[in-house]
Structures are given as C-alpha cells and as structure tokens.
Amino acid sequence: MKPLLKPLASIFLVLSILSLWNCKQEQKETSPQEMPKPATVQELGQMNRDFVEALKAHDAVAAANLYDENASLLPPNEDIVTGRENIRAYWQGAIDAGIIDASVKTLDAKSDGDLGYEIGTFELRFLGPDNDTIVDTGKFTEILQRNQEGKWISLYGMWSNNAPVETE
User: Fold this and answer.
1) Cβ proximity of 142 and 47 under 8 Å
2) Which tens digits make up the pLDDT trace of 78-97?
3) pLDDT at 163
4) pLDDT digits over 62-76, tens only?
5) Contact yes or no for 102/52 (Cβ under 8 A)
6) What is this structure's pTM?
7) From CA 149, how far away is CA 135, in angstroms rounded?
8) What is the DSSP secondary-structure string of 30-93?
9) Residue 34 — very low, low, confident or very high, per pLDDT cuts 50/70/90?
10) CA distance 138 to 160
11) Helix or strand or coil: residue 19?
12) Partners of 101 in the beta sheet?
C-alpha cells in the first residue's frame, strides 16, 4: 500500500498547485479594468478648435470627420441633422453662405471614462450681401466620446445664437 501513496501524493500536490494557479488567473481576468484618466479641458476643447480651423479652411469634410458616424447636430430653429454625411452637407452650407472667420472659447469641459462634454461660446463671421460682415455670436454644448484612436469626437452638438431671431 505504501508504494501507491507516493505517486498519489505527487498527483495530489500537482493538482493542488494547478488549482491555485487557475484561481489566481481567474482573479486577474475578472478584475475591473482601470478607468481612463479624466481628460483635460484642453483635450476636450480640441474638437471645437479643430472644427473652427476646418470651417476657416472651407473644408466641410474635415469638419464632418470631427463627428461620430452617427452623430447629430441640433441647430437652432432647424430639424435635427443626423449622420456624418448629412453633417458634412450642413457645414458645406455654412461655408457656401460665405463664412470668413470663426472662433470658439471653452467655458467648461469634463469627462468620465470615454464620455465628456464641453460648453462654450462662439463667434462666426459671414460675408454679407453688400460685402459687409455679419457677426453671429452664441453658445454651444458638445457631448463628446473618445474614439478608438483616443481622439475626442462629437456625438451631439447643440448651439443657439445670442441675438433674437429677426421677425418680419
């Protein structure tokens, strides 16, 4: 009987070690992933600074690429614009309307994981019908998401003008 005890004890020892090692591996695999570090105001505001540069360059494709494929714009006094291609067409309309300059200022921005927001003010300058300059000022809100490349892009953009809508 003693000759059987040695091999059984060895098998038991090996099985015990394997069992403990498997438990340790399962703990590593099921531990919660680290949350990404919150983005800075500078990082979150980059999307809109890039957007302004695209508008000033009259590049609607570059402007639209700052939005998620299924993003939506919520412009004042207009229907919702959904999808990157429709957003490209919308901003092409602004370019065609004679935009000559744009600027943004971030007032606040925060993130939690891969979602964030930015609020701020904007100023747009358009060439008017009499070669005058039309200035449009207002405020905006962007809901942002960090994409797979780590870049913040817009999911939803909403803005309103500071001046009241003119009535006839």
Assistant:
1) yes
2) 999 999 999 999 999 999 99
3) 86
4) 999 999 999 999 999
5) yes
6) 0.75
7) 36
8) HSPPPPPPPPPHHHHHHHHHHHHHHHHTT-HHHHHTTEEEEEEEE-TTS--EESHHHHHHHHHH
9) confident
10) 6
11) helix
12) 125
In the structure encoding, which two tokens stand for residue 5, read together? 């005890």
- Percent of the chain at pLDDT exceeding 90: 69
* Distances from the Cα of 116 to the Cα of 52, 112, 152, angstroms: 19, 6, 8
- 8 Å CB contact between 118 and 109: yes
- Please report the pLDDT score of residue 36 as a whole number: 73
Q: Three-class SS of residue 22?
A: helix
Which 3 state secondary structure label does DSSP give 147? coil
Measuring CA to CA, which residue among 68, 83, 54, 45 is closest to residue 154?
Answer: 68
Q: Is residue 102 within 8 Å of 56, Cβ to Cβ?
A: yes
* Backbone φ, ψ for residue 147 (5° rounding): -85, 180
- Report the distance separating Cα 116 and Cα 47, nearest Å: 12
